[in-house]
Amino acid sequence: MENITEIFEAGISCLVPVYQPGDGNATKLITDQGICYFDKRAIKTVVRLLCKHYTIHMESCREKYGTIIHRQLGVPLPIHSQLLLIPVKMRKPMFGKDGAYGYVNLYSIKNLEEKDGYGWISLHSGIKIPSLHKMQTLRQQINQAKLVAGNIPTVQSGEAVRETLDIFYETCEHPATKADIAILKREILELKRVLKRGTLAYNNERIKMNNE
Known about the structure:
The protein is of the alpha+beta class. The protein is built from 6 helices and 9 strands.
């Protein structure tokens, strides 16, 4: 599978910035099945290709969802219903333009572990991804991604909201800090708003069907 679009279609779990002999600054792509591929292009280019493949306007997404989580940098990037990329610091770049961040799919995360003071992400495929974030920071990154997931316009009912909450409880079995509680309170308010919006959309659709 050499065509990068075929790799995208296989399902992306993680994009990792790496230095490859002969290629320099490159990207490792990990699929949902845990298969790894290498692309000689930088991770910024690969992400842009991924967005183009799914007709996503990356800058517009970052602006919109950055407003929701009150951030301009490190904004999670929703691609489709099963792919929401979380920016994660994964390396110390040799050169400033190489970039330190990779991306992990929210829906590929099984759990988190702590090693030597830093957070590691365990994927459903069994692969473990080291980060350069402290655990609290990594959890906040994931929580913000869940907040973005709850605000994707394609939500039409409460089902997606309930799924988001299920993921939250599965991945956040840890003593809550004040920061975690603040984020959770904000998430609940946002999720309630999304649920209300989905219910209204559902009711309007039923009214429309009854009037036809």
